[in-house]
Amino acid sequence: MINGIWLGMILIGFVFAAVNGRMDAFTAALFDGAKSGVTVSFGLISVLVFWMGIMRVAEDAGLMRKIAKVLGPVVSFLFPDVPKGHPAIGYILSNMSANLLGLGNAATPMGIKAMQELQTLNPDKETATPAMCTLLALNTASITLIPATLIAIRLNYGSADPAGIVGTTLAATAVATFAAIAADRLCRRLALLRRPPGPPAGRDGNSPRGGTALPHSSLKG
Known about the structure:
Blueprint lengths: L1 H18 L3 H38 L2 H16 L8 H14 L3 H16 L10 H11 L7 H9 L9 H29 L21 H5 L1
């Protein structure tokens, strides 16, 4: 989908440049964009390697386990339908920890692994579960304490104060995260309200049609 969007934008730009006789400008912009992408990538490598190293040191020192322990109750609240001790919980905690440090590139593979583990709990492989939707919302709008990637970009372009966005980034991501959680809770509640009720049980615990009525706890699952 994303590749199709980018291809469409390139083709539209090519057509407009050809119609208006500005192919030279189009070609120059194309190569300038490629050159700028490579330059920015090299500028990001040093900062990302530094923070990945810091994250590894924190992991070896036990700091990541302490962060995971602090986030444990939060994860249990946000993902009530994921059993405790399931491998998905560990990947979710790693994803959230990396996002807190602004390491989006490190959080992405952890998020993918968490999705794969959540898929093992999915009874309908063609439809995302509520836990998958929650993880996607949190990964997209995660609270960021240290926006390492943005700081690297600003540093690469010669910003006088590359870390000056820490406060505003924290505030913006906090608002986004709370909004995502509120929307997720609302969608979950609406989904429960739209769920069709089970058949009414008779006095002997059986449905009027002769089937055995399910216990109330099983309807919640």
